[in-house]
Each structure stands twice: as structure tokens, then as C-alpha cells.
Amino acid sequence: MIRIVIAEDQALVLGAIASLLALEPDLEIVGRAADGPQALELVRGLQPDILLSDIEMPGLTGIEVAARLKDCGVPTRVLIVTTFGRAGYLRRAIDAGVCGYLLKDSPADRLADAIRRVAAGGRVIDPELASVAAFAPADPLSDRERAVLRLAQDGRSNKEIGRAMALSPGTVRNYLSEAAAKLGAANRIEASRIARENGWL
Asked: 4-aspartylphosphate-modified residues are where (predicted)?
């Protein structure tokens, strides 16, 4: 049996994926997570063969969870299933050690096959997205710049961002200025938009 933890913050989607995979005789759902920290905790505790994860989740993104699992040496292999067909997300996912990347409009049998291939040590990448990613620009942002931009796009002030990240408002301002300069943006709003459109947030 291939043991799977599913991480997805939309309850209906999580339930639908779990129900579809439960029909497969060789796949077993051993855990469900509604956010990134919960996914990390479940994988560390249960040591499943596969973490099937969305990208955008509260707390930690699927890519951030994959990176932390990689850094900790956890053998669970990560397969991303997302609506985001952006080359920047794929490049970041691969850098984080993700072994599979599929879009949510993939047929159920393709998802099940991808899980089996990833569990067997292979890599599965949506072919159309892989060809686009090969020519996409590299992500210029540091992890700190990305985190600060993500909070800024929610409308938080420098002081609020600083409180959330244990940084001074001046340091937050510097990170935002550096991010905007790297992206050729006039301000934090434009920087967030550019980063989001390229899959860098």
C-alpha cells in the first residue's frame, strides 16, 4: 500500500480528492491537513510515502512544507496538485525537492498514476508547464523578501509586518525596497502583483 497524507485548505476539494483516491486498491489515505503547519506535523509523525499538497495554504505553502521536509531529511516524497500553472511555482517547487507537479484539472486516473510513479522513485511534471518553465526567468526574490511581500499584499503596515516576522519596521522597509527594485516595481503593490503573476509568491 502507498500511504498518503493530503494537504488542502479547501474542505470540499480535500474531501473530493480523498474520496477519489480511496477507490484505488493500492492507495491509503492516512492523514488530512487543512494548512501547512498541520501537514508538516502529520508527515513528521506518520512518515507517509507521499504528501499530496496544494501550494496556497495558511501558515506555510506546499512549497515551504516540501523545503522543510527536504531540510529535515524526511523521506516522504511530495506531489503538488494545484490550480497554479505558473512556471515560477514549478521552478520553486523543484528547488524545494518536490517530485511531482500536476494541475487540479488533471483526470483522476492520471493523479493516481502520478502518485504511483512518484512513490516508485520517479518524477511527474505536467508536460505543458515543464516546457514553459524551461524558458521562464529565475525567481529573483530571497525567502525573506517573499515573506514580507506576501504580508504586504494583505495590506499590512511595515509595523504590522515587523511584528509578525520579528523585524524592525526599518528592516521591513528595506526588504520591500529591495524586492521592488529586483522586480522593477514602483511600489509594494506593484511588486506583489509582479511576483504573484510570475509564481514567485
From this structure: 54
